[in-house]
Amino acid sequence: MRYVSLDLETTGGHADRHQIIELAAVVEDTRNVLPLAELPAFRRVVRHAEYVGTAGALALNAGLLAELARKDENPELCTPAELVPQLRAFLVQQNFRPDKHDCVVVTLAGKNIGPFDIPFLRHLAGWGTLVRNEPALLDPACFYLNWRKDTRLPTMSICKARAHFPDDSVAHQALADALDVVQLLRPFYERPFYKEVK
Q1: Residue 179 buriedness (CB in 10 A; 0-12 / 13-18 / 19+)
Q2: Nearest-CA neighbor of 130 among 99, 159, 162?
Q3: Using CA atoms, how far apart are residues 81 and 76, in angstroms rounded to an integer?
Q4: How far is CA 59 from CA 6, 12, 54, in A?
Q5: Distance CA 181, CA 122 (A)
Q6: How confident is the model over 42-69, as a mean pLDDT?
Q7: Fold of 2-196
Q8: What CA–CA distance (Å, rounded) separates 173 from 133?
Q9: How far apart are CA 63 and CA 67, in angstroms?
Q10: Concatenated DSSP letters for 104-157?
Q11: What's the CA gap between 31 and 100, in Å, rounded?
Q12: Which of 59, 79, 44 is nearest to 174 (CA)?
């Protein structure tokens, strides 16, 4: 199957008042696994007229805000209104075919994609009409859950530690985090869990 690992960086945690300032998407084909560096990737930084956010989120994304403040030419820069049309063009270029309503429908993967990213995506112009996600979502936390000991789903850092990544820190950079999700899911392509159910 093909899925899109998607990650956002935002100015805070509330989709109704905070803003997307970076979106990255990586296309993974489980039948044709490529080196991570060769995966088709999309990244945009999103310029708003003004930014509304929490101190913590703004501090975490200081480098990204500096990139948005620069006046030089940046091919990865877009406005909120341009974001979904540009993502759709990338997906079509990767041979995702629009449905009968001319909407590109994708399976999304990401850490906390359901509770965090999807509410932000729903606020974007064109989400649901130009691009929309399948209802079922892939979150690597389910694959790294210790059913006997954990009291909640593991964080990205815990997932990376349990997967024996050399560095279990989280980059908080959309493209790096989207690639980490692909890397976390890959060990399970060859041994689907359903085959282990007695």
Answers
A1: buried
A2: 99
A3: 14
A4: 22, 11, 8
A5: 21
A6: 97
A7: Nucleotidyltransferase; domain 5 (3.30.420)
A8: 22
A9: 6
A10: EEE-EE-TTIIIIIHHHHHTSTTBTTTEEE-SS-B-GGGGG--TTT-SSPPPHH
A11: 26
A12: 44
Query: Quick one: pLDDT at residue 96?
Result: 98
Query: According to the model, what pLDDT value does residue 29 have?
Result: 98
Quote the CA–CA distance of 63 and 173 in Å, as a whole number.
10
Residue-wise pLDDT for 116-168, tens only, equals: 999 999 999 999 999 999 999 999 999 999 999 999 999 999 999 999 999 99
Distance of CA 124 to the CA centre of its chain: 15
Asked whether 12 and 114 are in contact (CB, 8 A), the reply is no
Q: State how beta strands 77-78 and 108-109 pair.
A: unpaired
The whole model's pTM is what?
0.95
Widest CA span in the chain: 60
How far is residue 83's CA from residue 112's CA, in Å, rounded to a whole number?
Answer: 21
Question: In sequence order, what DSSP letters do the residues of 51-100 get, joined into one string?
Answer: ----HHHHHHTHHHHHHHH--S--TTEE-HHHHHHHHHHHHHHTTPPP-T
Q: What is the predicted pLDDT for the residue at 190?
A: 86
Separation CA 54–CA 21 (nearest Å): 13
Helix (H, G, I), strand (E, B) or coil at 101: coil
Question: For residue 83, how far is the Cα from the chain centroid?
Answer: 14
